[in-house]
Amino acid sequence: MGYLTWSIDPNFITIGSIQIRWYGIMFAAAFILGYQIMKWIYLHEGKNIRNIDQLLLYLIGGTIIGARLGHCLLYDPSYYLSNPIKILAVWEGGLASHGGGVGVLIGLYLYKRKTQESYLWLLDRIAIPTALTAFFIRIGNLFNSEILGVPATVPWAVIFERIDSIPRHPAQVYEASSYVLIFFLLVFIYKRGERKLNNGAISGMFLVSVFTSRFFIEFVKTKQDAYSLGFWMSTGQVLSIPFVVAGLLLILMALKQFKPMSR
Fold first, then answer.
1. pTM for the complete prediction?
2. Between 227 and 64, whose confidence is greater?
């Protein structure tokens, strides 16, 4: 069977010793588009757009620091605690979406203390560009030929030539596809239910949909021995469960509120 082959160079351009990687471009594109989406939301709802630049800084810092620490301390703590300087080596790869999620929550809280915005209002709005960010990051993983799927014989299996000659599930594409669909779903829900949904509803839907899809896609991902928990669920699946539970709680809280969400 003629399987798809992926052999793209992860470097977009190399100038001397300087390498600009596709992953970095995807990461930057995610924040640029996220900035524009939040600007549109702030203008649409009559909020002060001068706060957007400050919000972006908190989100970038929270995402990168949280994702890196999450990867180092949750997935391979023995190595990174023995080599703490390696925690700073972000260019070597290793960002965990669960850690990034926690970092965003902390960053939003710090931002909220300065602006006095409603925390749940912020969570609902930031959930929309965050889904798009997750899409771009997984596309970056695809360029890096990382987050590989298990061997497969399905017609759409992919051979990642930089890794081996085994056809595999394109797990990165599965995740990217689910995240971009969630993004469009959240945009639709936001536009249709802006005056009807209570605070916490959209962020709850985001958490449930993103981490439920992540949980099931983990079944076709290659488990790395260093990160294995020794039973049927992977580390990623175990870490996804609290986010799904938190999302369900947010949805229940929103359903119990009687007042329409504040503008």
1. 0.84
2. 64
The dihedrals phi and psi of 145, each to the nearest 5 degrees, come to 55, 50
* 221: DSSP letter: B
| Residues 106, 81: Cα–Cα separation, whole Å | 23
Phi-psi region of 88 (alpha: psi -120 to 50; beta: other; left: phi over 0): alpha
Write the DSSP assignment of 103-122 as a string of letters: HHHHHHHHHHHHH---HHHH
CA 88/CA 241 separation, integer angstroms? 28
Cα(13)–Cα(143) distance, integer angstroms: 13
Task: Write 251-255 long-range contacts (CB < 8 A, 24+).
Answer: 251/200, 251/201, 251/204, 251/205, 251/208, 252/204, 253/198, 253/200, 253/204, 254/197, 254/198, 254/199, 254/200, 254/201, 254/204, 255/198, 255/201
Give the three-state DSSP class for 58.
helix
The pLDDT tens digits of the residues spanning 16-44 come to 888 888 988 998 899 899 999 999 999 98
Confidence of residue 261 (pLDDT cuts 50, 70, 90): very low
54: how many CB neighbours lie within 10 A of its CB? 12
Q: Which tokens go with 162?
A: 């930089």
Half-sphere exposure of 29 (CA within 13 A, CB side): 14
SS3 141: helix
